[in-house]
Amino acid sequence: MTNKVGSGRGSGPDAARASSEAARQALEALKGSVPSFGLVFASPSLSLSECLRNVSQVAKGAKLVGCTTAGEFTEKGLIHGGVAVVLVSTESPILARTVRDVAAAPQQAAKSLCDGFHRTAEAARQKGYVCSTTLTLVDGLSGAGERFVESIVEHTQALHQVVGGAAGDEGKFEATHVGEPERAASDMAAAIHVFTKSPWGVGIGHGLEPTTAKMRVTRAKGNVVHEIDGRPAFAVYEEHAAKRGVKLQAASAGEYLIANELGIIVAGKVTRARAPLSVGKDGSLSCAAEVPQGAHVAILDGKPDAMVAAARQAAEEALRNLQGQEPAGVILFDCVCRGLILKDGFSREIAAIREVMGEVPVAGFLTYGEIASYSGRIESWHNTTAVALAIPK
């Protein structure tokens, strides 16, 4: 069995032209193979629906899902205001789903994304397709977080992998979109379930270090942190910024918050990072995923060299998890804050991945949250993390 991966990108501001160009490049990279499925990553300045429809016209028959981003990239580098497309040709059975109303009921939304999973898995298993991976995209402002991913895991099967990312809107934090060619909107999620004869490789890396002393979350509910060490959570960030010569304003603090995320500390180590997305009137912080009340936390930061090393670590782990197979391509879900830290040096991260994987196609986007549930890991929703999915030949 052979898998082939093709990537392409196109620059805006014309959605039809940019998406069609990206799709043509990805299709040409398949060298005559027919695409089975694909992902479309589009700037929020472009119509996601239009991009998906145009890619669908080029990649006829491929099942497509996509989302808006905080930056889109291929192995050729990171762009803003354009489209990145990855197409995959495979003999593996696939099942694609989209769903609305994620914010109000993330667990139910995830369950709906898995409708038909077990029927398809059983039919696939009888033909020797015993492994499975879900690629999922979700509204980045929905607050879905770990409950969403855990529900996908619950409604799939043992040893199932889930990877993906939360849609972005270039740091505006106003609206993010997810969809398929027939429909795309905010408050949506999408999934492509792939059933394979051998495992696809997943790996992660973050490269972050605390820049503050350990603190305690003294009041929180769900993804909203109200108080840290008895103070409004935003006041803690204001103090952190002031020490760096930055005066934070609640209305314009988004870029600083997401570049200095909140790390959850267990046994002296940063186990999870949480991106604060907005500031409440009471000085609370709404994060991309849950932060438990009582948790120990610190404000994090990362250096460019550490970001690159973390991407290499993710690629190395993903390659190991291919269990001896050669990679055909890599899909990368990478936190927006890593793009903010690396800036024009983001190409170093892509180069590090290809140093590990070889000269294979790489495609992905800068996210508002990264998803990786695999190999029995407890954490499934990540921030400030690079999640690499290696697709074998």
Task: Walk me through the topology.
Layout: E1 4-11, H1 15-29, E2 37-42, H2 48-58, E3 63-68, E4 72-74, E5 77-79, E6 82-89, E7 94-100, H3 106-113, H4 117-125, E8 131-138, H5 145-154, E9 161-166, E10 178-180, E11 183-185, E12 188-196, E13 201-205, E14 209-210, E15 215-221, E16 224-228, E17 231-232, H6 233-242, H7 254-259, E18 262-266, E19 269-274, E20 276-279, E21 285-287, E22 296-301, H8 304-320, E23 327-335, H9 336-342, H10 346-357, E24 362-367, E25 370-373, E26 381-382, E27 386-392
Parallel strand pairs: 2-3, 8-9, 23-24
Antiparallel strand pairs: 1-6, 2-6, 3-10, 4-5, 4-24, 7-12, 8-12, 9-25, 10-11, 13-27, 14-22, 15-16, 15-22, 16-17, 16-21, 18-19, 18-22, 20-21, 23-27, 25-26
Helix pairs in contact: 1-2, 3-5, 8-10
Short key terms for the protein model shown above:
393 residues, alpha+beta, six-stranded mixed sheet, 10 helices
> How many distinct beta strands?
27
> How big is the Rg?
20 Å
Mean pLDDT, nearest integer?
94
> How far is it from the N-terminal to the C-terminal residue, by CA?
8 Å
How much helix is in the residues?
25-40%
* Estimated structural class: alpha+beta
Overall body shape: globular
Number of helices: 10
Which residue ranges are poorly predicted, with pLDDT under 50 across at least 5 consecutive positions? none
For the report, how would you describe the main beta sheet? 9 strands, antiparallel
Beta-strand fraction estimate: 35-45%
